[in-house]
């Protein structure tokens, strides 16, 4: 249903995504892993057409997405809703209005200007919030909610668009472990119950293993792994993250930096001993 062929994005001399070729033939739950700067966000942004591609193509259900513009591009963007690490809500606006923002593409300028929403949309927004366990918070300002609750509001806003694909760029990177779990469970449920494809950039390996059917590993802009969580061995993970022998199963891209920092004094100690 979704195919990326030799997808490339360059920023000057820097090739952020380098000839990525991937085929998604069913709406799975997919995790993209890799260390900081590997090209994960750029890949998602190209998919959503927030970023133009330098070369290569994206096709969805036989249509070329790569060159869409104007209304057709906006239609595609509503079909593949994006959620972000920082939630991107309007903090002072109430939760239900934030969710209703997900219908902006479908409404006239005048209706948008006066915040006029059809009753059916308001009911649907509350139903979606209910499904995500946060309907009680509907009248509150978004800023009054916890991070995990705000991310669920962002997911609700995405669902208002009735997307076929949900793209999540580090959806749990700002959350504590408890909230992270609730958000990942919500995304998994949306995938399983609605049959929507979910593609999430994740910075922890164990999250990718636990919630995803398929894991894609990126390194220096290239896709270096594409397989099931079972196929993702520690050796493979080490290669994706460009880590040494010190790499452990529990390690993540953030932890690798810590590992490198802790590895440095060890090397120094060896040198001193010599
Ligand atoms: N708008 C931009 N202008 C210039 N360079 C960019 C831009 N966006 C990304 N890059 C570069 O492209 C490369 C890939 O960045 P990207 O944000 O896609 O990586 P990432 O894997 O998502 O990393 P992180 O986990 O830190 O977000 C990096 O070298 C980055 O500096």
TrEMBL record:
GO terms for molecular function: ABC-type phosphonate transporter activity; ATP binding; ATP hydrolysis activity. Residues 2-245 form the ABC transporter domain. GO terms for cellular component: membrane. SUPFAM superfamilies: P-loop containing nucleoside triphosphate hydrolases. Gene3D superfamilies: P-loop containing nucleotide triphosphate hydrolases (3.40.50.300). The keyword Mitochondrion does not apply. Transmembrane segments: none annotated. Coiled coil: none annotated. Pfam families: ABC_tran. The keyword Translocase applies. Keywords: ATP-binding, Cell inner membrane, Cell membrane, Membrane, Nucleotide-binding, Translocase, Transport. PANTHER family: AMINO ACID IMPORT ATP-BINDING PROTEIN, PHOSPHONATES IMPORT ATP-BINDING PROTEIN PHNC. This is Phosphonates import ATP-binding protein PhnC. It comes from Litoreibacter roseus.
């Amino acid at each position: 249903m979704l195919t990326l062929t030799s997808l490339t994005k360059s920023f000057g001399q820097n090739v952020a995504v380098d000839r990525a070729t991937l085929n998604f033939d069913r709406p799975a739950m997919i995790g993209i892993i890799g260390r900081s700067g590997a090209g994960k966000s750029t890949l998602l942004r190209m998919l959503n057409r927030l970023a133009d591609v330098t070369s290569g193509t994206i096709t969805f259900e036989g249509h070329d997405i790569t060159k869409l513009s104007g209304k057709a591009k906006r239609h595609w963007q509503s079909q593949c809703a994006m959620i972000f690490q920082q939630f991107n809500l309007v903090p002072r606006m109430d939760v239900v209005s934030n969710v209703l923002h997900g219908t902006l593409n479908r409404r006239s300028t005048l209706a948008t200007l006066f915040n006029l929403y059809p009753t059916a949309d308001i009911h649907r927004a509350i139903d979606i919030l209910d499904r995500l366990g946060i309907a009680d918070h509907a009248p509150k300002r978004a800023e009054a909610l916890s991070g995990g609750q705000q991310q669920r509001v962002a997911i609700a806003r995405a669902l208002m668009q009735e997307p076929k694909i949900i793209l999540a760029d580090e959806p749990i990177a700002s959350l504590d472990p408890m909230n992270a779990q609730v958000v990942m469970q919500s995304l998994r449920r949306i995938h399983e119950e609605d049959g929507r494809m979910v593609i999430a950039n994740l910075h922890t390996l164990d999250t990718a293993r636990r919630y995803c059917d398929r894991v894609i590993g990126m390194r220096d802009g290239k896709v270096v792994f594409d397989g099931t969580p079972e196929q993702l061995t520690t050796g493979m993970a080490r290669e994706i993250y460009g880590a040494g022998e010190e790499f452990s199963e529990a390690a993540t891209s953030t932890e690798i930096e810590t590992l490198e920092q802790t590895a440095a004094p060890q090397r120094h100690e060896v040198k001193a001993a010599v």
